[in-house]
Design a protein that fits this description.
Chain lengths: 515, 297
């Protein structure tokens, strides 16, 4: 019975430089990493790929870490559609290109395999066609795998064409059971979707097991959880790995836990050591040299800037508020959960204005709860098809209180610009502009409104802001969309104020001076 | 004097009322969902009303420096109208909202079977949403209605300290005091209680578990009755801390059980409620309101 080599998936360290993640993991006593090729961590499309690969290779060997290559990055190929294209797409070229690059990179890194999944069946494709596309795609890749002598490992992924171990094994059989095609088994997925438990899945895969991902899950819910939070029998699973003589890496797979990666990774290795069958613990694995992560970090050149990061208001520590992170996970796994999470946001993360000094009511920049709700909506839009997302967003507004409605309005610009969502958003903006609640009016006049509302309604929205006291700073792209007709309307408004002996709001005067 | 009015129907009141309430020290209130005077004929009429309670009315109150909360329920009177009963199915969506601090007003009007059913079902909702309950006691046959109310509460399994039984008087207070539920009193110009009888009951029953409200609505009522009760207490020899307990600490303790009270001062408003000769004097003035919700309709 051999000790199992423990790794950690770098997709669970998305907020760390790769060099820093490697240092943390080596320091905690992990034996390897499951390296997801992605924008920030070894971008397979980088212009200087060769030198990056060399650098990562040195980094790993200095830290004494083993490596497998993972290819499940979410937006590496298509900035708008998660995981697209796949081997099942009408045009799988980009996916095939990625997997071929992955094989070469794996070879150069000395990685033990390249893990991949099938992809989801496109709505326009029948199952037989999808299966044929997958089989042909994998057959083509096997040639490339042979060229680099790197095994491929197919991972059953809930919701995808191949979501059960049995399907992956069947595909392998249909391809003639090639040595270079093995299986990646995520033991959490076994809890979520397999008819037998994870230990039994390990035995079924047996000798063709090339790669293992470790995490907990609950039956029926595809949500990667820390050990102990779901129903995985971890000791029995590790014992089964030892029993089948598995010698590959078993890497913790917690891609939604990057916000707290170092502590999560520490908890994970403690749980794993505790559950490990007899024999020497992985921590004493002799292959790893004395740990000295500091030089590795200090000498490694800083990672290339991963490109523009999402622009965020200067917020709060609350941005990675644990409740919010958990809520995002829940919405991803179970989109309708947003109905109970959305109303609770203010109670959980707070309601303070983001810039209380200049904007005490949050009319211009919004509030902490606005920001959190925008994030939940962003997740919702990735978790549901457009029509369903549009319906859900409309209902959240329909049944929302003032704060929830504000959150929906501020979130519209974060949703994908697709017809169903734009149409729903416009209806909500028009509803909000009929209200007299200044917080709704202010939230309605943001980026989405600037981009989509017709000019007549938009002008009335601006005028309404002047009437009810919303600072025009809350109106997105005022300079760009302001026109002569708006100026006429504001001019008439100013004349009416003066005729009544009232002050003209400074914002109105400024607008008249500048349009 | 710092005042939390635990039962007032602001939907039926004017902005002058909000201003006058702020001026005498009202800084927070709870608006229970109830009957509109004119019967409703469909569920949509309820949801529009609930939307106003969790949105528009909260906004209106905020313009006057007052924290607005509400309770949500199908009221006893309309529980008898089959066109309205389906609103029970939408209640969970509203009971999850911020600022919804109890299930209410529930209870009896004419003590019918339909009222029994709606009452029991809403007590279950309160348990499921971990919310306290505001129970209305009937105008007619009040003592019998109060007894039946207490029996239903007991059977429901909800803890008595999470229930306020409202609109009590000299005849009904005793049984509620014994039950462990909170005792609510509505101080009215003509009907229900007046402030002097209220003071007498406070002498007899003490200040624990007592909520004093104006229950002001569209009928003849006075949104300043809480303040007047405070003055009557002081005149009768109660201390300022007794008044603060009854008019602030008690409602905070009761509705605070929801975990959803928000009581910090609104931006731009002072928390100070110092009074001079019975009238509040705002120190250093208050910034002009940038907003007049009624300016555009």
């Amino acid at each position: 019975m051999s000790a199992i080599a423990l790794g950690y998936g770098t997709n669970g360290f998305a907020n760390h430089r790769l060099a820093d993640a490697v240092a943390v993991l080596a320091d905690l006593g992990y034996d390897g990493v499951a390296l997801t090729l992605d924008h920030a961590h070894l971008d397979p499309f980088a212009a200087d790929l060769t030198s990056q690969v060399n650098r990562v290779s040195r980094l790993l060997s200095r830290a004494g870490l083993r490596v497998v290559v993972e290819t499940g990055a979410r937006y590496l190929l298509d900035a708008r559609h998660k995981h697209q294209p796949t081997l099942l797409s009408d045009d799988p070229t980009a996916r095939v290109d990625l997997l071929r690059r992955a094989l070469r990179i794996a070879h150069d890194l000395g990685a033990e395999c390249v893990s991949f999944w099938s992809g989801s069946t496109p709505s326009t494709v029948d199952d037989a066609t999808a299966w044929r596309r997958l089989r042909d795609g994998v057959a083509g890749l096997l040639d490339e795998a042979g060229r680099w002598d790197v095994p491929l490992a197919l991972e059953p992924e809930p919701g995808m064409l191949v979501q059960h171990l049995a399907q992956a094994l069947r595909l392998r059989d249909e391809l003639g059971a090639p040595d270079l095609l093995g299986i990646t088994l995520d033991v959490g997925h076994c809890v979520a979707v397999e008819p037998v438990d994870a230990a039994e899945c390990v035995r079924l895969a047996g000798a063709v097991l090339r790669n293992v991902q470790l995490d907990d899950m609950r039956p029926g819910v595809h949500e990667h959880l820390e050990f102990g939070q779901g129903q995985l029998d971890l000791p029995a699973t590790l014992a089964a790995l030892a029993e089948v003589g598995y010698t590959g890496l078993a890497a913790v797979e917690l891609p939604r836990h990057s916000h707290a990666a170092p502590v999560v990774a520490e908890r994970a290795i403690h749980a794993l050591r505790h559950a490990m069958p007899a024999a020497p613990a992985a921590a004493e694995n002799p292959v790893r040299p004395t740990n000295n992560p500091a030089p590795a970090t200090a000498t490694a050149p800083p990672d290339r800037d991963a490109g523009p990061r999402p622009v965020r208001p200067p917020s709060p520590d609350e941005v990675d508020h644990p409740w919010l992170v958990a809520a995002e996970q829940r919405v991803r796994a179970e989109p309708e959960a947003i109905r109970v999470l959305f109303p609770a946001v203010g109670r959980e993360v707070g309601r303070a204005a983001l810039r209380p000094d200049s904007d005490p009511h949050g009319l211009v920049h919004g509030t902490v709860d606005d920001l959190a709700r925008v994030r939940l909506l962003t997740v919702l839009a990735t978790a549901l098809p457009d029509d369903a997302a549009a319906t859900e967003v409309t209902e959240l507004y329909r049944y929302g209180d003032d704060a929830e409605r504000r959150g929906v309005l501020r979130g519209l610009s974060a949703l994908p610009e697709r017809p169903a969502l734009v149409e729903a958003g416009l209806t909500l903006v028009l509803d909000a502009l009929r209200s007299n609640d200044i917080r709704l009016v202010a939230a309605a006049m943001g980026e989405f409104c600037a981009g989509h509302l017709d000019q007549h309604s938009w002008r009335h929205g601006v005028l309404k802001c002047l009437f009810v006291g919303v600072p025009l700073a809350a109106v997105a792209r005022l300079d760009r969309r302001g026109d002569a007709e708006l100026r006429r309307m504001v001019d008439d408004y100013a004349a009416e104020r003066r005729a009544a002996g009232r002050d003209v709001p400074a914002d109105a005067l400024r607008l008249l001076g500048s349009t | 004097m710092r005042i939390f009015d635990p039962h007032i129907h602001m939907t039926s009141r004017t902005t002058d009322d909000y201003q006058a309430m702020f001026d005498v020290g009202v800084r927070a209130l709870v608006e229970p969902a109830f009957w509109l005077g004119q019967p409703r004929t469909n569920v949509g009429s309820f949801t529009d009303y609930f939307d106003a309670l969790i949105g528009w009315e909260r906004f209106r109150a905020a313009q006057f420096g007052i924290r607005h909360h509400c309770t949500i329920a199908l009221n006893p009177k309309e529980a008898n109208d089959p066109r309205c009963v389906d609103v029970l199915d939408v209640l969970p969506r509203y009971l999850a909202k911020d600022g919804v601090v109890a299930v209410g007003e529930v209870g009896y009007d004419s003590m019918t079977d339909a009222e029994d059913t709606a009452f029991a079902r809403q007590l279950e909702l309160a348990l499921a949403h971990e919310l306290p309950v505001l129970v209305h006691t009937p105008h007619r046959d009040k003592l019998a209605g109060t007894r039946r109310t207490l029996a239903v509460v007991r059977e429901s399994g909800i803890a008595p300290e999470r229930v306020v039984v409202d609109h009590l008087n000299e005849v009904t207070v005793g049984e509620v005091a014994d039950s462990g539920c909170w005792m609510g009193f509505s101080i009215y110009p003509d009907t229900k209680m007046d402030e002097h009888r209220m003071v007498a009951l406070l002498r007899e029953y003490g200040t624990d578990r007592v909520l004093v409200n104006s229950a002001a609505d569209w009928g003849r009522s006075d949104p300043l009755k809480t303040h007047r009760t405070g003055l009557a207490m002081l005149a009768a020899g109660f201390s300022e801390s007794d008044v603060d307990k009854v008019l602030w600490d008690n409602p905070v303790a009761f509705y605070g059980q929801s975990g959803r009270l928000v009581l910090d001062p609104l931006p731009g408003f002072t928390a100070s409620t110092d009074t001079f000769a019975g009238n509040s004097v705002l120190r250093g003035g208050r910034p002009d309101h940038a907003v007049t919700p009624g300016e555009e309709r």
